[in-house]
Amino acid sequence: MFPKPHAALTPNTFEFEQLPLVKPTGFREYDARWLFPKEINLMGVQALGLGIGTLVHEMGVRPDIVTGHDFRSYSSSIKLALIAGMQAAGLRVKDVGLALSPMAYFGQFALDCPCVAMVTASHNDNGWTGVKMGANRPMTFGPDEMGRLKEIVCGGTYQYRDGGSYEFVEGFLETYLNDLKSRAKPISRKLKVVAACGNGTAGAFAPKLLEALGIEVVPLDVTPDYTFPRYNPNPEDMEMLHAIAHAVKEHGADVGLGFDGDGDRCGVVDNEGEEIFADKIGVMLARDLSKLHPGATFVVDVKSTGLYNTDPELQKQAVKADYWKTGHSYIKRRVNELGALAGFEKSGHFFFNEPIGRGYDDGLLTAIAVIEMLDRNPDKSMADLYRALPKTWGSPTMSPHCDDELKYGVVEKVTERFQKMKEAGETVGGAKITDLVTVNGVRVSTEDGTWGLVRASSNKPELVVVIESPVSEARLHEMFKAVDGILRENEGIGAYNQTI
Q: What is the pTM (predicted TM-score) of this model?
């Protein structure tokens, strides 16, 4: 039997080459992330593959699975180790090669595979690896499945089965892009678009798709380089957004689009170089799509702007907004449960249901939606559409370091602190607390509409802090100072990756 994984092993030892290493904290709420090889080695990845196969059979799902890998120096070798484990557990593997996560999700439909295991660290820094998994298209695993997978792998209770097989699917990149082209409407407006890929996987995809739609493309960092020399491919990172903004102004582009490391997210910069946070892009798209689909429901994550509830244009179209847990698996599942037209996350994960998409997150499909919105508004620029929104002042997503072993306990204490403050009638940032949303961390709102969120990151040893005010920039800063002060009453809180 394959050995039971160890939680810690020292590299450059015989034990490291003879035994599987799988750090238990790598099993997150809805996918898996590890530092390679510090927290998982190749034998550990084999154990993960055995665990996935064991879980698929335990769930009674047909054992056909799509796999692919993102563009990092080690992703291909990790995928091959994963495949070895999945085959040993009786899974019939279809390998689509170098891929975006949405290309693997598309493979579940196009190749008739109920299951997916995409090797990617998404937007995480180099050194990270991971797997996005699912066994019920278009959904990916949530906490229940991830908890059971952790039990199987860490307990070494995986099971060998006959019937495993391997097939490489040649030319699937073109099949995926052709499907996206078939979903796009003809573009009549002449548009120039900056396509930024951070030297990551999307460079092999985004420029080809946009050019096929008749768009004039200004490529930015599309040449593959897995050292990510300029910035991490993360369209929520201000460094990437600033680079896009510079290119938009330099080339006189109509819009700038930035894609993350595995292509399931899209960031947007308008024609004046203004970096638009993804939750505001969601409001703009909801305005546009609700004219075609009045009364539509949109699922949004708790990090997102309050405009989904208060925007007069959305109210006019009888739009229903459902605030839900942050995380691609949570929003995907909620969109499916409610039959929502779309789901939007502040991180840039957008989920379009039929008739637009198949319910999973795809940065390239989001790019098409933005371009079609511009095409349906030929007399307006991206900046015009942005200015038409009610003004709010919002922070980027800010993440102070907090160890995986501590972060959930910290959020629990912060939540209890705000609950006691509300009960006692205390103020936060100088304003009375009117509402607490605790579906995912704690989102505290005050009487003037200003709010702040604290939650645990689901994929890194960090907390997540977001602030928004419809009143003023000064209120934004007051709320941030108050929320950060309460957060730092706890030990183990490190520096922010970015702040206001």
A: 0.90
